[in-house]
């Protein structure tokens, strides 16, 4: 029998399939990925180091939508804001992946590379080294929380009896359909203002 013209399996297909399962069901198993690809589970393990390896392929697939060129902008706060907005958009496209990715250590080299750029951006701007990881972690929390919020119902506070919560009901009506975007703009602006206060 001749060899197939195209390999049945590669890391890109494994990551894409796992992400598709997460988007559909909220999680994946390696046997499910194998079934979807029409191969044996052992074949998947030839390409990845267990479930953790598949998670990193998913992470790379999501982060590949981020344009690292945003981190070449200057000054540092312009770069950080542009990266945060691109980061939010990439993860908002796959909200069910957020909890899986946020609870697994980051190992994917391409993703580590982007965080290295962020760390370098902050260090080069003169931030104290012990402020760098709190800033990166804080930005992660802000961006990923907002990306989850983008998949939430537009009306999150269901006020059935407006007389019981008239100010909340009125504020919710006044905000309109851009609640998640306006909240992100507000919190990102506050975060960056605080970071500017830490800058030398």
UniProtKB/TrEMBL annotation:
Keyword Transcription assigned: yes
HTH tetR-type domain sequence ranges: 8-66
Keywords of the record: DNA-binding, Transcription, Transcription regulation
Portion annotated as DNA-binding: 29-48
Keyword Transcription regulation set for record: yes
The protein's name in its UniProt record: TetR/AcrR family transcriptional regulator C-terminal domain-containing protein
Alphabetical list of InterPro entries matching this protein: Homeodomain-like_sf (IPR009057), HTH-type_TetR-like_transc_reg (IPR050109), HTH_TetR (IPR001647), Repressor_TetR_C (IPR004111), Tet_transcr_reg_TetR-rel_C_sf (IPR036271)
């Amino acid at each position: 029998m001749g060899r197939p013209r195209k390999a049945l399996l590669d890391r890109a297909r494994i990551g894409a399939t796992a992400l598709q399962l997460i988007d559909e069901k909220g999680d994946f198993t390696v046997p499910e990925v194998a079934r979807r690809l029409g191969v044996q589970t052992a074949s998947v393990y030839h390409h990845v180091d267990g479930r953790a390896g598949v998670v990193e392929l998913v992470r790379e697939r999501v982060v590949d939508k981020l344009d690292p060129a945003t981190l070449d902008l200057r000054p540092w706060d312009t770069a950080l804001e542009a990266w945060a907005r691109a980061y939010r958009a990439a993860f908002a496209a796959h909200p069910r992946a957020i909890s899986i990715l946020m609870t697994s250590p980051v190992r994917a080299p391409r993703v580590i590379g982007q965080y290295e750029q962020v760390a370098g951006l902050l260090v080069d701007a003169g931030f104290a080294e012990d402020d760098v990881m709190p800033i990166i972690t804080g930005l992660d929390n802000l961006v990923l929380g907002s990306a989850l919020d983008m998949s939430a119902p537009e009306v999150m506070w269901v006020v059935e009896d407006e007389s019981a919560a008239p100010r909340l009901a009125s504020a919710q009506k006044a905000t309109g359909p851009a609640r998640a975007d306006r909240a992100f703009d507000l919190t990102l602006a506050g975060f960056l203002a605080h970071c500017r206060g830490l800058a030398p």
